Amino acid sequence: MRRRRARDGTSVRLLSDSRKYYMIEEKETMAVMEKDMTKGSPFRLILAFTIPLIIGNVFQQLYNMVDAIIVGRTVGVNALAAVGMSGSIVFLILGFLNGLTTGFTVLTSRTFGARNMDGMKKSVYSSSVLAVVVTVILTVISVAGLKGLLRLMNTPDEIFQDAYQYLFVVFLGIWTQVLYNLLASFLRALGNSRIPLYFLILAAVLNIFLDLFFILVMKMGTRGAAVATVISQGVSGILCLVYIVKKVPLLHMKKEHRVLEKNSVRFQIKVGIPMGLQFSITALGIMILQSALNGFGARAVAGFTASTKVMQLINQAMISIGVTMATYSSQNIGAGRLDRIRKGARVSTGMSAVYAVLVTVILHFYGKYMVRMFIDSGQTDVLGYCEMYFSIIAPFMLILGTIFIYRNILQGMGFGFVPMMAGAAELAARTAAAFTARHFGSFEGICWADPLAWVAAAAPLVITYLWRMKKLEREAYERE
User: Fold this and answer.
1) CB of 100 within 8 A of CB of 273?
2) How far apart are CA 276 and CA 473, in angstroms?
3) DSSP assignment of 354-418, as one string?
4) How would DSSP label each residue in 237-260?
5) Alpha helix ranges (H) inside 105-251
6) pLDDT tens figures, 3-62
7) 466 phi, psi to nearest 5 deg
């Protein structure tokens, strides 16, 4: 048996040409493995893995959507605007943490693809330790700096208190979001995208009932919506933990696995921080855009909020394809299957393109009807803002889908720097559009900020993917 030292410091064990993989704890591995993405039809694998993700992500969006629907229809337009403008701030903190935890588990997926089970278990331990440390630090920072951040964003006086109450509770419950996302990422690294879905559906349904209870019965307003969200997220995370303890022995650690190996931690930080910062950079651009939007008044904010809520729901299919490709590329890079990564990229791009065309048509013709989930049909001025937004962004959905796919492929392969810099390009484009729109008092300019940002981010991602693949293939050829 030969050994090869991977770039991340993990040991990949190779046998003779008669067998490609050395299976460790084979019986235990196959008992829990839902999708081995290193063999079989890429189309079938990607589709089968993506469908549960789509359903799960749609239900996850229901957390904020239900908050917005119930708040907007029972508390009022100002409360809807408060919840809506809070979204960019939540994304700044939780987006960073979600990107960070996803980046930490790239090593889990890679070592699983390489059948290095001891390395995989050690990666689970180090991911958990790193996630706890970062969660504690960011909870303290976000709660302490909340009021200053709201003032910095020019939050209108009429929605300031509602926004503060909502965000204060959400930030106190950051740990619930991290718990679910980290444990769900572990399961997905093994190819299991179904179990996290089941728990997410249960939590989303629970969130609806809790929203109704805390908002309508307890009269807690936006704070009640936040309490319902935190409790529901906590339930989904705890259920994932119970399932892993009882049903996934592959993720159970012994004493020898509870160590922080220097090479593994370095790799996880190297991948996780850029992935987290990429989300935060995107969130920062949205916050700048939100700050410019706040100058147009609460009704414009409400219209923009309703539109983006619809977009968040529609985008989940493309986001899910991207998340699938992170796991797919990570497992296959661990197994040394560059050919499968190329095939997967082509398949996922085609799937996303078909969906993007469908979404373009839906948004253009029916988007104005979809926002009525959040606002009354009699508020024609608010509906006018929504209609303008959809008419501008609809033709750019194909570019948005491209971003999700190639950003995740690169991150799954362990290349986090360029996706982060693509996020910086996205930030620059969105900021320029926001300041220009604010200067000229143009809501239409605000609507153009997203498409311009997508174009700026897509180009470096696709170019880098093509360059990296050629380089890796050349290196593999030279080793043979």
Assistant:
1) yes
2) 28
3) HHHHHHHHHHHHHHHHHGGGTS-TT-HHHHHHHHHHHHHHGGGHHHHHHHHHHHHHHHHTT--HH
4) HHHHHHHHHHH-GGG---GGG---
5) 106-113, 117-144, 146-152, 157-172, 174-189, 194-211, 221-247
6) 444 444 443 433 333 333 333 344 444 444 446 788 889 999 999 889 888 887 777 776
7) -60, -40
